Amino acid sequence: MKTTPVLSAFAICAASIVIAAEPVPPFSGSIERLDPKLDTLIAPEAKIEVLASGFNWAEGPVWYQGGIVFSDVPENTAFMWKEGQTEAAVFLKPSGATKPEGGQGSNGLAVDARGNLILCQHGDRRVARLERDGKFTTLAGRLGDHLFNSPNDLVVASNGDIFFTDPPYGLKDKASREIEENGVYHLGKGGVLRMVVKDLTFPNGIALSPDEKTLFVAVSDPAATRVMAYDLAADGSAANARVFFDAQPLKKPGLKGGCDGMKVDAQGNVWTTGPGGVLVISKEGKHLGTILTGQATANCAWGDDGGTLYVTADMFLLRVKTLVKGAGFRPSRK
Predict the structure, then answer these.
(1) Of the four listed, 2, 280, 281, 332, which is most buried by Cβ atoms within 10 Å?
(2) What is the mean pLDDT of residues 65-87?
(3) What share of the chain is helix, strand, coil (3-state, %, to 5)?
(4) Is 284 or 172 the better-scoring residue by pLDDT?
(5) What number is the average pLDDT over the span 199-220?
(6) For residue 232, how many other CB atoms are within 10 A of its CB?
(7) Does residue 1 lie in a domain region?
(8) For residues 186 and 236, is the Cβ–Cβ distance under 8 A?
(9) Please, are residues 208 and 162 in contact by the beta-carbon 8 Å criterion?
(10) What confidence tens digit (pLDDT) does each residue in 123-140 have?
(11) In a domain, 332, yes or no
(12) Any residues with CB less than 8 A from the CB of 159 and at least 6 apart, and which?
């Protein structure tokens, strides 16, 4: 959504400020059921609802302060949608490029156990926390003396540790790159940072199993889009790399997108964006079905009471009621 800025830097917008959506094509989506188990996760009568539209590239949704907050990456803006609104409101602008040199905005968002909003900020090349005064505190901005590429997505463990991915998608140009690897990082207690996976082409979405013993990483490589799994040690190190689900065979004309953002439900099923929309994968790695959006789909997150899946699909914010809750879902403070 291309709009004229209505907020000063670091300002948090009240939900009453609403941005009108530009005309967009009609939405057409459906739910593809490949296995009877999907009926235990998404009711047969469930529908895909369009909540808001007209965004440039919607990403990184998270349930926060009684609504769904999500990034419009190219517009350097985070929006919020709450029940009863017909449009999303500007929540934060700038969201991820706060320096004079600019750049893209926030991407993946998460909420920690204290209710703080944590952001992957492309333009500022860091992982940051939003403070109550509207300013940002850097949690991770460098590996040694080198700036990150463009932190993309993150997951917060129950003990407060943060895992995040760092592909180059948000860089302005190749010359600005300072770290050769597209790493997956662990930020532990006391701010101790280390790269725990260094051999992926384009690590993107990231999630933890319900017991937090397995780390999932979506790879958005156009030539090999897939979800990887790793065993996690108590210190956050990752081992035993394996392909959890290969989505490359699903790519065909009409099914846009690759493995980008993802979440895990309380039963251990993985809900990853992929060709066509949101792929629902059992904990054994079986494809149960797809929420077909007809769009290149960026990410998803549970909200409300934990039983509603919100989906960012290109220009659309969508939702689908589910029969399962998100793993570790915590209603945020309003």
Answers:
(1) 280
(2) 96
(3) 5, 45, 50
(4) 284
(5) 98
(6) 22
(7) no
(8) yes
(9) no
(10) 999 999 999 999 999 999
(11) no
(12) 189
- Residues, the chain: 334
Which two structure tokens, joined as six digits, stand for 32? 């593809």
Counting residues of the chain whose pLDDT is more than 70, the rounded percentage is 92
Within a 10 A sphere around the Cβ of 134, how many other Cβ atoms?
Answer: 13
Residue 41, token pair as written in the block: 């996760």
* pLDDT bracket for residue 13 (50, 70, 90): very low
Return the CATH number at 180: 2.120.10.30
> Minimal CA–CA distance to 217: which of 262, 266, 283?
262
b/e code 32-45 from CB counts within 10 Å (16+ = b) = eeeeeebeebbeee
Write out the residue range of the structural domain in which residue 222 sits: 28-321
Number of domains in the chain: 1
Assigned domain for 291 exists:
yes
Is 141 contained in some domain?
Answer: yes
pLDDT in tens, 218-267: 999 999 999 999 999 999 999 999 999 999 999 999 899 999 999 999 99
CB atoms within 10 A of CB 326: 23
Alpha carbon of 305 to those of 260, 309, 329: distances in Å?
Answer: 25, 10, 8
pTM: 0.92
Q: How far apart are CA 131 and CA 92, in angstroms?
A: 12
C-alpha–C-alpha distance, residues 262 and 269, integer Å: 11
